[in-house]
Every structure is written in C-alpha cells, then in structure tokens.
From TrEMBL:
The keyword Nucleus applies. Its main location: nucleus. The keyword Nucleus applies. PANTHER family: HEAT SHOCK FACTOR BINDING PROTEIN 1 (PTHR19424). It is found in: Nucleus. Keywords: Nucleus. This is Heat shock factor-binding protein 1. The gene is LOC115825072. The lineage of its organism: Eukaryota, Metazoa, Chordata, Craniata, Vertebrata. It comes from Chanos chanos. Belongs to the HSBP1 family. GO terms for cellular component: cytosol; nucleus.
Length: 68
C-alpha cells in the first residue's frame, strides 16, 4: 500500500508540475501580447500627437493654446 501511495504522490506531483508549466507558458504569452499592444498604442498616440500638431500648424494655430 505504501508503494501505491508513493506512486500516486509522484504522479500527482508530475501532473501538478506540468499544469504549472502550462499555466506559466500561457501567462507569458498573454504578457507578451499585452506588451506588444501597449507598444502599438504608444506608437498610435505619438502619430496622433504629430497629426494634431501638423493640423494646428496648417490652421495657423502654431504656438496658440487655449487655457481652460
């Protein structure tokens, strides 16, 4: 009986290690996707700021800011 309990404990340990490795891989993939999307958003914001500045220059509003 002791041998079957030790085998069961080893099997359970092995299954848990595989499960934890699988979870770690999934979390890493999600983290990588989030970082990529944050970088893309930063690039979009930079482009938007440049476009707004260009539009303001074209409209003759360079250097003019409204205070609210």
């Amino acid at each position: 009986m002791a041998q079957s309990e030790t085998k069961a404990a080893r099997d359970l340990t092995e299954m848990m290690e595989k499960t934890m490795q699988n979870l770690q891989s999934k979390f890493q993939a999600m983290s990588d996707q989030i970082i990529v999307r944050i970088d893309e958003m930063g690039t979009r914001i930079d482009d938007l700021e440049k476009n707004v500045a260009d539009l303001m220059t074209q409209a003759g509003m360079e250097g003019h800011q409204t205070t609210e």
